[in-house]
Amino acid sequence: MARGKLKRFAENMTRHNVIEPGKPLFETIKGSWNKHFNNENPISLELTCGRGEYTIGLARLFPDRNYIGIDVKGDRIWKGAGIALEEGLDNVAFLRIHLLELARFFESNEVDEIWITFPDPRPKDRDEKRRVTHTRYFDIYKSILRKNGWIRLKTDNTGLFEYTLEALKGRKDIIDLAYTFDLYHSDVRPECHEIRTKYEEKFSAEGHDIKYLKFRFA
User: Staple partner for 107: which of 31, 66, 90, 178, CB 3.0–4.6 Å?
Assistant: First the structure.
């Protein structure tokens, strides 16, 4: 393992805003996120957060909400965790887990909103169940999301976007579904607060339209 990656892992272990295996809080945080943030503010998640651009960007804009970036890669969340500490963003945390484990770390109704930002599209048929918009993942999200809480997806990948729309339309518990295949030429653009991830900047520069959707569970 590269020396730089080892250094980042070591720094994550010392940071109070990173919850990961090996820390006592990792085993006890479920149902206690508001206690961790020391407030009763609503909680938003950024799934597949990478460096946490949305987690950090939203936390800057909305200090009266709590934001948790979730990714399995510790060297990715190291960047966002460091920025949050440097800027004194006490409403930010990062959780290092696989998304299939979400229900182990959040109680029913503990989450107010979920953002899914530029996930791996997993285009191969054999990887369908690994797509984070597969219906089995939606069942997990539903189990932790409060009633009427929004789920929002941003992606450049047309195949994943169309797959997600079909998955949602095949369910009986989806309401208020709205979507666009060209976010930056749509009237819902303000909902994304002009926050752009590293991948979004890359894909936009290559000429890809950004897709966006939102929905709630009945």
Answer: 31
Q: How far is residue 18 from each of residues 5, 12, 145, 148, measured CA to CA in Å?
A: 16, 6, 22, 28
What amino acid positions are annotated as catalytic residues? 120
pLDDT at 56: 98
Q: From CA 122, how far away is CA 7, in angstroms rounded?
A: 30
198 token code pair: 């590293």
pLDDT in tens, 106-131: 999 999 999 999 999 999 999 999 99
User: Where residue 73 sits, what CATH number does that domain have?
Assistant: 3.40.50.150
d(CA 168, CA 134): 9
Look at the chain and report how many structural domains it folds into: 1
Can you give the residue range of the structural domain that contains 49? Answer: 3-217
In terms of DSSP bridges, do strands 211-217 and 174-180 run parallel, antiparallel, or are they unpaired? antiparallel
Model confidence, pTM: 0.95
